[in-house]
Amino acid sequence: MRAIDAGLIICHECHQLNRHEPELKRQFCSRCGGRIHERRPNSLARTWALLITAAILYIPANVLPIMTVNSFGKGAPDTIMSGVITLVDNGMLPIAIVVFVASILVPTFKLVGIGLLLYSVQRHQPMSARQRILMYRFIEWIGRWSMLDIFVIAILVAVVRFGSLASVEPGVGAVAFASVVILTMLAALTFDPRLIWDNTESDDDHE
Q: Which positions, given as ranges, span the membrane (predicted)?
């Protein structure tokens, strides 16, 4: 049984359960005073908008240079993939692995995962609620590691300063990638996971 079937609504701010009062146009949490809804308004539409924007920005994030590694006065701008190769060539294998996982694998999984989650909820695809909620929780979990490579680049810029011997400079692609990370994090936040359970019990997708 869902909480709404028992006449309860959860607050997204403090997670307090409140008695549903359908006669009220606006209802507020009894604990923190935050606005509460049966379901987040336009959750699917907002999540789709953020996801599509992130997918568009993912192209320049991978095409434009994300950093420039200068060694002995020589260096060229690198994209994410060429940057990974450059880091490997310069003996920075652990950092290269971190950048590859955080910059390629994690964003790609988040984009595809959120897209599949939205599609399965809207189109009532044969995917169990348990599978959907596990995917949603995993997307939330990996979201905290999405900015890891940006932090790595920031640290490299600050630490690798040996004059003309070696230096690392951030590129414009880092801005596009940071935007992708932020947008996918917001997409995961705007998606209402309660729609997963609604979808398994009714045909209403609560757009």
A: 48-72, 92-121, 142-160, 172-191
